[in-house]
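Need tokens for this chain, all 161 residues.
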Amino acid sequence: MEELPIEYQRVMTTCQGYLELGMPAEALREIKALPETVATQPVVLEMHVVVLIRAERWKAALRMARLLCREQPSQPAGFIHTAFCQHALGDTVGARETLLKGPHTLQREGTYFYNLACYDAVLGNLDSARQYLARSIRLDKRFREFARKDRDLAALHAELK
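Here are the structure tokens for all 161 residues:
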């Protein structure tokens, strides 16, 4: 991956700061001001997707996430973001399929298994949701705490006490 010039690294840092302050509109303004040659770099595309997700601009985030998948077909981020947007737009079946058809590199990501758990729980596949959730927790213990509050996993909350 090509390193961004320092002035654009600063823009990325500024975007991250705006997101941490709960100011996605400001982060989006920063991203949109970048020249096209920079805006199409994978690291910038991913930040753009994250900003759009935080702004709950699901359709725009989905388009950008799909572009990230095309630009980096072996990397997990685009597929995780694409599925997340599909789920937010009500296409949980499609979200699940996106993850299952994604690159093998996804299987190193706790988020992959956690999101599959969420999607399966929403779809009523509680046995597989439990298995995916357990796998995500093995990869990162913090997923147990997230799961206790995640409404997608409401059917499993009693088991997480």
